[in-house]
Design brief:
Length: 395
Amino acid sequence: MLEQLEQMPADPILGLAAACRADTNPDKVDLTVGIYMDEQGLCPVFAAVQEAQRLLAQEETTKAYLPPAGDPLFNQGIQRLVLGEDCSALAGGRVTSIQTPGGCGALRIAAEVIHAAAPDARVWVSDPTWPVHIPLLGSVGLAFQTYRYYEPLTHGVNFDGMVEDLKAARAGDIVLLHGCCHNPCGADLTLQQWGVIADMAQQQGFTPFIDIAYQGLGDGLDEDAAGLRLLVSRLPEVIVAASCSKNLGLYRERTGAAIFVCSGESNANAILSQALVAARRVYSMPPAHGALLAGRILADEQLGAMWRAELQGMCQRINGLRSSLRHALERYSGADFAFIEQEKGMFSFLGLSVEQAVRLREEDAVYMLNSSRINVAGVNANNLDYLAKAVARVL
Ligand SMILES: Cc1ncc(COP(=O)(O)O)c(C=O)c1O
């Protein structure tokens, strides 16, 4: 039976990362997958995570399943981290969440809940969006619409186009927004623009669904969640998929949460029960290790302070790299790369053609996506000049 299956193409991003790993060129530069890398090109374990791990190893007495909704301390911590300590929906009992296997698990469980509530819901996604959104939400049976978002000419958000397109979003529809550090373009909404989206959601009745996978890597933990919190303060319902992969460095531990801000407390209980049914159908219980670490770090003053300082250091390094890369590219090419410094988080489109991106790969072992999306955190003092000269040469 299985022998009739055909070979599937490799995931374009993971496939490129594998090709880079296999490349023997000592000068190769990996700007492919969205993981944070330090000056040595390594994806580090946070010291706060190491310490939490040490404490957990001393205390852990069982590997029995977590409860289906996950670790309660983690759920409390992630709700407060994302929504803010002073969130009135939280105080009013209008929030529920379940711990999920990463942000991907959160997107999938939220999609299942959305589909149960409104099987005909259309999900509005930005053009472009993270490609994995489509199979994650689409496999549940939800249909998609696209709204204009990134404008390659200005390297910024085409907000007029976005608003124009979202005028067609109606009650029962979902508008998927990147909470911060847009993947793949790095261009984020201003707080004033988030306010316009809140007005539209109020008037038209659509539900915002916010994917926040990079909180703390744009401007800071609170700054990066400001738009999301504005929507939560003004709307009866908001859905959030949160990930601890990047901001706690827990990638392989698969730690995330599907958070539902609901219209009332009893509704929150019903939504939680739906999320639990969805989880039971897909994976039953979430993995424990990452959530036990994150829950502890978020609840413990000392560990929390240690983690926040480390995260802030990463955020500052990314913003410093954006500035260095902009200036190096401008120096070698004479072109304007000011946009790199205005964008947020780990990603940016360099604005190269597919042919130029392929040439960089083949001639210089500089690996970026064909769309010329780069992971800024893959740049470091050792490869900055090499990268900038190579880009200048293909321009
Ligand atoms: C935009 C976006 N959303 C969600 C995720 C989910 O991440 P994970 O499932 O690793 O937590 C990612 C990861 O790259 C992402 O870029």
